[in-house]
Specification:
348 residues, alpha/beta, three-stranded parallel beta sheet, 11 helices
């Protein structure tokens, strides 16, 4: 039995009213304390520069080496403008994946929902180890679980706002000991509260399988769990189908990122939107059309239209028409954008 209502930052709502749903976005993320040194030492002076038209190409290749680029929380007006464009394009719901460690801001989520007219579903849980405080890093599974379950049952930070998901649960490669405990806590919290989970895997084809193993051994339910960021994680179709066979939801959430250079893992060839669509078509042809989710994972400032980025409406404005040109039926598209997100979010 699926639950009839979904928790949003403005309160519970009917699952029937979710509409077109992007399952992996950020509205207030800030991980500027994790800025990377650029690969070229001569570029280190650029790390504290503002975002300009003159350094935009450099930013596209080195997005994590500009401190200002990693603080989306300072761009509330630009985020809201792009959310309004999503609403205008037909969007209904955004699942916000900012959790502990990267600046979850409930007051801002409420404001965005009220001013944009979109439903905003927020999360709980813990991002990767390097973003956590020292006290959180040493917390036990029981302590981490208590925090997650407390958010779900009682509300976040003394508010009445309850998360609709656990995630994104941050995992590195190799997994840090904290991240293993975080995965186990997410699994236990999921089994206790019937809340869907979003996993951010390490950047290697083996990572989703290892993350799932630990998660499932702790009682997690793969059928109500998403493996995110597949476009930078799994490039071979047979490996993708192997993952699909586990029953997880399969998320292509980097739509609009049209650059093959991936700063955090230079050996990875990032997919283009055309390649993402081809991988999704392969999943549909292989019988997994009801397990596919899509989003943009907006998490840096240069992805906002204010700075020449794609914003949150790109999938509806450009990817969906491309899908139609490539032979996707309207039923296929509706599954990906409406039915599948609803199925994931209505875990009971």
């Amino acid at each position: 039995m699926a639950k009839a209502q979904i928790e949003t930052v403005l309160g519970p709502m009917s699952a029937e009213d979710l509409g077109i749903t992007l399952t992996h976005e950020h509205l207030t993320i800030n991980y500027s304390n994790c800025a990377m040194s650029p690969p070229n030492d001569d570029d280190k002076s650029k790390m504290n520069d503002p975002i300009t038209l003159g350094n935009l190409n450099w930013l596209r290749h080195n997005p994590y080496s500009c401190v200002a680029n990693l603080n989306l929380a300072e761009e509330k007006d630009a985020v809201l403008a792009d959310l309004k464009l999503l609403k205008q394009a037909g969007g209904g719901t955004v699942v916000e994946n900012t959790c502990f460690g990267i600046n979850r801001d409930i007051a801002a989520f409420i404001e965005f929902a009220k001013l944009s007219g979109l439903n905003v579903v927020c999360g709980t849980g813990f991002y990767v180890e390097r973003t956590q405080s020292e006290s959180v890093k040493i917390a036990s599974v029981e302590e981490l679980t208590k925090t997650i379950v407390g958010d779900i049952n009682n509300g976040i930070d003394g508010t009445k706002v309850k998360p609709g998901i656990i995630g994104e649960v941050g995992c590195s490669l190799p997994l840090a000991e904290f991240e293993k405990r975080s995965l186990r806590a997410a699994a236990i919290a999921q089994s206790e509260t019937h809340t869907p989970v979003m996993i951010h895997p390490g950047r290697d084809p083996t990572a989703p399988f290892e993350d799932l193993r630990i998660f499932q051994e702790a009682g997690g339910d793969a059928k109500h769990t998403v493996i995110a960021h597949l476009g930078r994680t799994i490039s071979k179709k047979d490996t993708l189908l192997e993952l699909a066979e586990t029953g997880v939801f399969l998320e292509y959430d980097l739509f609009g990122s049209e650059i093959s250079y991936f700063q955090e893992m230079p050996t990875i060839d990032m997919l283009s939107d055309a390649q993402r669509i081809d991988m999704i078509a392969h999943l549909i042809a292989s019988g997994y059309g009801d397990r596919i989710l899509v989003a943009h994972d907006v998490h840096t400032c240069h992805q906002l239209t204010k700075y020449g980025g794609h914003g949150y409406a790109h999938i509806l404005d450009y990817a969906v028409p491309k899908m139609r040109l490539k032979g996707f039926s309207q039923a296929d598209i509706d599954k990906i954008l409406v039915s599948n997100p609803k199925s994931w979010l209505t875990y009971y």
